[in-house]
Design brief:
CATH class of one domain: Mainly Beta
Structural class: alpha+beta
Strand order of the largest sheet: 1-3-4-5-6-7-8-9
Helix content: 10-25%
Shape: elongated
Number of helices: 2
Strand content: 35-45%
Oligomer: single chain
Order of helices and strands: HHEEEEEEEEE
Number of strands: 9
CATH architecture of one domain: Beta Barrel
């Protein structure tokens, strides 16, 4: 009877340790399933984005980002201009209601915050956060669609057409 009791306690201990050591789903993973505001990470990842609003309190600072195009891929966010590229990190947290963005250098580091997701569609993402001074900081991304302009080609001249000099 004593060995049966010892086996029971050993089994209970092993089960408890196994249960407690199980890892909870990483709630900050950009791949975490979410039925809330950013439910389709693929929509964000398969498009390019421009910042259309960056406002701190009453002051718009959107001009700091007018040259950038943003690409979200996995946990990375790439900021591209004609002359440069910088890669930062982004993660979705708190059941898909928050997004955290991090870049190492200015002016992109101004985006380094844990943002509340106000709304998200296939065409825009609206984020907001209150800074330490109590000011509302607003950030909006709008889907950017590149338009490929036709290249100018030389118009061939007809050898039969007279030229005037």
């Amino acid at each position: 009877m004593k060995t049966l009791r010892n086996k029971f306690w050993a089994l209970l201990l092993i089960t408890s340790v196994a249960f407690l050591s199980c890892k909870k789903e990483d709630r900050f993973s950009p791949y975490a399933k979410s039925s809330s505001k950013i439910a389709d990470e693929n929509t964000v990842s398969r498009n390019d984005w421009k910042i259309t609003t960056f406002q701190v309190g009453e002051m718009s600072e959107v001009n700091l980002f007018k040259e950038y195009i943003f690409k979200f891929k996995g946990g990375e966010i790439q900021a591209l201009t004609n002359n440069s590229s910088e890669t930062g990190k982004w993660i979705i947290g708190r059941k898909g209601e928050m997004i955290t963005i991090h870049f190492d250098s200015s002016p992109l580091s101004k985006l380094n915050r844990e943002w509340n997701i106000l709304s998200k569609t296939d065409y825009d993402i609206k984020l907001e956060q209150v800074n330490r001074k109590g000011e509302t900081v607003s950030l909006s991304f709008q889907r950017f669609k590149r338009v490929d302009l036709p290249t100018q080609t030389e118009v061939p001249t007809d050898p039969e057409t007279p030229t005037f000099e």
